[in-house]
Amino acid sequence: MAANNSNSGGDIDESLYSRQLYVLGHDAMRRMANSDILLSGLGGLGLEIAKNVILGGVKSITLHDTATCTLNDLASQFYLTESDIGKNRAVASCAQLAELNSYVRTHSYTGALTDEFLSQFRVIVLTNSDAVEQQRIGYFAHANNIALIIAETRGLFAKVFCDFGDKFTIYDQDGAQPVSTMIASITHDAQGVVTCLDETRHGFNDGDYVTFSEVQGMQELNGCQPIKINVLGPYTFSIGDTSQFEAYKSGGVATQVKMPKTISFKSLAEADKEPEFLISDFAKLDAPATLHVAFKALGCYINANRTLPRPWNNEDAQQFLQICQEIKSDVDEQLVLQFAKICAGNTCPLDAAIGGIVAQEVLKACSGKFTPIFQWFYYDALECLPAEPVTEADAQPLGTRYDAQIAIFGRKFQDQLADAKWFIVGAGAIGCELLKNFGMLGLGVGNGQIFVTDMDLIEKSNLNRQFLFRPHDVQKAKALTAADAIKRMNPDVKVTAYELRVGAETEKVFSEDFFGKLHGVANALDNVDARIYMDRKCIFNRIPLVETGTLGTMGNVQVIVPFATESYSSSQDPPEKSIPICTLKNFPNAIEHTLQWARDSFEGVFKQNAENAAQYISDPQFTERILKLPGIQPLEILESIKKALLDDKPKSFADCVEWARFHWEDQYANQIKQLLFNFPPEQVTSSGQPFWSGPKRCPEPLVFDVNEPMHLDYIYAGANLRAEVYGIPQVRDRQKIAELVQQVKVPEFKPRSGVKIETNEAAAAAAANNFDDGEVDQDRVDKILTELLKNADKSSKITPLEFEKDDDNNLHMDFIVACSNLRATNYKIPPADRHKSKLIAGKIIPAIATTTSVLSGLAVLEVIKLIAGHRDLPKFKNAFANLALPFLAFSEPLPAAKNKYYEKEWTLWDRFEVTGELSLQEFLNYFDEKEKLKITMLSQGVSMLYSFFMPKAKCAERLPLPMSEVVRRVSKRRIEPYERSLVFEICCNDIEGEDVEVPYVRYTLP
Question: Which one GO biological process term can you cite for this protein (predicted)?
Fold first, then answer.
């Protein structure tokens, strides 16, 4: 048995597995790191499974195969090349798979799968075994408590079977964060009814288990064993008899507890008798039963003929149908015939999708994390077939790497793929998968091309999901590196890579001409703004867009078809809930609040104030600009500059330590003392209720102790970051810093009367608005400006810090963790470790390779439909997945909403086409005469070019001007040579004088 990599065991490499750890957790990852996997069959599907399992971080994987590489394998087995033809597939793939993760022992094995050999594994995956071998191994695995997964892809059909044994324990069924809720009351009776605070929905389900903390009075509940609840309503639930407990007084938090669940799987033989199917497409409810028969019949056909049915051969298809009918009389004949005609083929995106699903099942079997498939899953993507039926002649092989694909789609479609031009936006995890799938399809290898852009550099945390990158690629450009990797997989591929973001600033490159030559766009983005921008570009250029997104084990694919579907921007997720200002400033009650406060502190102290000071030094116009800002903003900014350059400017590292110590005292002692001076612990409201109750936690000031690690953590990180801002050499010796901080004399603080502290959100928001609306003290402004002009050292070097969560040596997260946990200590909030703090403060999107593989594969199946020329909505499938449940669902895209003016219907895909050059007056007349529309307002971007309320003199000045000149004058920008047209938004009245909604105008420049 050949082996690669020997690293195993030890601690989890959090810098590598960072994003995956937020999906699976440390316990599940440790169980995976102790699991040995056997994968038999290294075709395209087997490779995809192996890739994702290795990236996931199991202990070892043994790659087994007895088959040698053929030309057909090259359609989807991206680690094989023509030079590998005739070699064992497992042996030829092993080295490249091993490169994916040095922590996973990767072996190849070409011998027999004996019982003795099988007994060493935790999970066995079969992708290329006949029915006899499946039954033998199935019996052995079930009897020996070894998880078994069988997976196959044939043409556009797929099968997955899972048997994890008689007693399989699921430790977390869905992976969702445990829900918690604050308590308003608990009845002292047989039902024990818990009511949530301020009518907040508790989010529990009937039968959930909860435990309690911070309950005043009914002490028996604090830290109790998990209690099963009965949900009575959205705000109440029952915990059973509390009559023997102390009476409830106040407070408390109820937190969901994930309880282990044991399920029993049937063996392969038993499950085959009465199969239970996971349904994914409710438009094809009867398909799984027929496909169950078809996959079984395929083995019989091969045994009888020693080969697969010939592609698109009617005679073979009829023989296959007969075998199916002998197994079960009432099968879907058309589905069976279609299965026979394409089952000899293979395509990479289907292997990617199914490979991701199966790999996730492997990780479930290792870890007990998430709910497994129970027990059969069937899938087909027949909508991908060309609209014009493929003939047997058109499906004949050409002696190329695409022959297995031609067996499904025909030669004509392969030519269409070769001539396609598609733009992949983003070369991260999704982008890497899209590139691989495009490359293996042969997209753009003829007169077409693939374009890809990404402005980011590769980081270590990317390597766990972005499989085209290796450790030696860290800090290289993602797009260029990914493009090179794809060219190595398929030398035919033509890829042009850019290191650019998409946006207004790069329209010189991604111009109207650029989009005009594209056949479609595939988004692989991680932010909404860029998605909306690309959505608008695709609408304007009337080209298809396939949108893919993932979040942990969840993901979706949306296909946007010109003149048919709604766009990405037609519907949007609700905005994230923001934390109220007064909660952040004075009344936090959750670790999320203290972490946001810590982030704000970092941004204010190490970035914004430093940025203001740096700009004052380097930009002569900076002062002039800030003096034009509204309200008290000029004074606030000048005060921060004065502190940064004069009052608090450090000259040595000891000064930085002193600053950190003073800052500590202000944040965790003085501000809390002032708050308690205003609102003492015994304070009551006007209604007689305790002020410090419900979500308001009564804080306690901290007393600095150099021997408290968290106290010194803050000084250590804060002082070093301060030193970095001012270019002072850092000191990374904790003992030295401890000695310095003990020399700092901290003045005594006395709370002041008259300090106003807002206690509700409306008042806090109003106070924040005064920042923009308040009156500025001009004398104070002038005094500061004079002091700065006289005393500020313009040669000072100040470097604002950009928060970077993934660099463990820069002390950014050290500061955030200490800053947050100290405030949590003030308010008796349970602290968060570095791992959780990074997730929340860094706004990390949890991610795992399996989800990316599934959703990217499904996205490229939609691309195939678009290239095939399909435009009928029922052919397309928006996809929604949650691999944890497991849940996979498909729906027809929604049609574009229809609008109307007069008797003309229009959608977001329609527009007025006007060819210039016209004067503004001619433009208005054009719509008045041709469309019977009177323009009341006309804008371009954010510039208002014309309106019915415009002053007469200004209107008279603009009306004779050419439209392009109006744009230049009003927007104060030049029209670039690459701009072929302008977009105008218009508001109109009809002939009755009523407002009507109309499309935008595309004004083509001469």
Answer: protein sumoylation
